[in-house]
Task: structure prediction
Amino acid sequence: MRIVEAAVFPEVPVLVKLADKSEGMGKVRGTLRLLHQKSLFDPLTEAILFARNKKGLSNVHIVIPFIRSPQELMQIKRDLAVKKLMRKNSLQIWMEAATPENIINLEEYLLAGVDGVVLNLDELIAHFAGFDHQEPELMFYKRQVTGLLKFLEDSLKLLHKSKKPFLASGSIVLDPEVLEFLVEKGVYGVVVERYEAPSVKDLLHQVEKKHILSLGAN
Result:
């Protein structure tokens, strides 16, 4: 969601993902680029500070994009702290999990300090299965989700045990098998395009109803 929309939904947490640009700079992207390109990092943080401090939009929170290591997470948190953007009751810092490394080392990321996790399922399945999720000819790989879901099992148990909420984003969220898995694991919410919202709402209702009925049968 964009920062400007935080004023429209003042009672709803608005998670703003920092820029994950990859043009130029040798295709450097995500947190690494934010750490080394202040002309990108500074305007973003200034906009968030303006929204929170000048406009009183304390429902605006931060998502750190495409992190490659817990060390990168700690460094970007230090840079945010310099800007007076630190984790506290009114400011949450979430991390985007977009690579298998994030899942394997999730406990280290949680120890470094985050308030929640956004699972970028399109990125995760692409890195997990070894294909470019932006190439139309390879889209059939997106339907092969069983391996990815098994891979995520332990990490979602860890999030549940740690009482950390998680969101799921990406086009494969709309896959019924994926959505059923997420609901079963206690997903906090899903991120979809605005035009997809009505259909995913209906799909979520069906999956939740099925899940409740299965619990009753047991």
